[in-house]
From TrEMBL:
The keyword Oxidoreductase applies. Residues 2-168 form the Thioredoxin domain. Keywords: Antioxidant, Oxidoreductase, Peroxidase, Redox-active center. InterPro entries: PRX5-like, Redoxin, Thioredoxin-like_sf, Thioredoxin_domain. Thiol-specific peroxidase that catalyzes the reduction of hydrogen peroxide and organic hydroperoxides to water and alcohols, respectively. Plays a role in cell protection against oxidative stress by detoxifying peroxides. It comes from Comamonas faecalis. Its EC number is 1.11.1.27. Belongs to the peroxiredoxin family. Prx5 subfamily. Pfam families: Redoxin (PF08534). It catalyses: a hydroperoxide + 2 glutathione = an alcohol + glutathione disulfide + H2O. This is Glutathione-dependent peroxiredoxin.
Amino acid sequence: MIKVGDALPSVTLMEYVEVEGNGCSVGPNPVDVAKATAGKTVAIFAVPGAFTPTCSNQHLPGYVAQADAFKAAGVDEIWCLAVNDAFVMGAWGRDQKTAGKVRMLADGDAVFAKATGLTLDLTGKGLGLRSNRYSMLVKDGKVVQLNNEAPGKFDVSDAGTLLGQATLSAPV
C-alpha cells in the first residue's frame, strides 16, 4: 500500500469536462496523474462510489464547503476519485455543485486504486472492486499525509481532518 513519502503512481484518470477550453474538449479527457500533480499541492480524497449515501451526504459536501479554506492553506486543487466512469463523475459533480471547487476524477478501471493498494472489494454486494475511502495530501506528486479509513468507516478522511493537516504543512 502507498505510504507517506511515496510518489503517486504514473497512471491516467479521466475527467468529464462540461466546457471546452485550455485545449480540453467537451467530454471525457485524460488526466495524467504525474503531470497534473507536478509542482502542485493537491488534496485527494476517494470514495467507494458516486451517489452513495455517505459519499453524497457527508464526504464530498465537506470538501466543497471547505474549498476556499483549502486554497487559503496552500492547496492548489482538490480531487475526488471514485471507481466510476467519467460520465457518472461528471453527473455527480453537477448534482453536488463542485465546479471550480473539486475536480471529479474517474478511476473507471481502478488502476489508481490498484496501484496504490487502496482497494475495497465489494464483490458479492453488487459493487465489485472499488476504491477504499481515504484522503491524502500530495506535494509535487509525493504523498505527505495519508488518512485511510477502516472498511465501512468515515472517521479520518473528512475535509476537516485533511484541512487541518494541510494548514499545519502550509508554508508560513
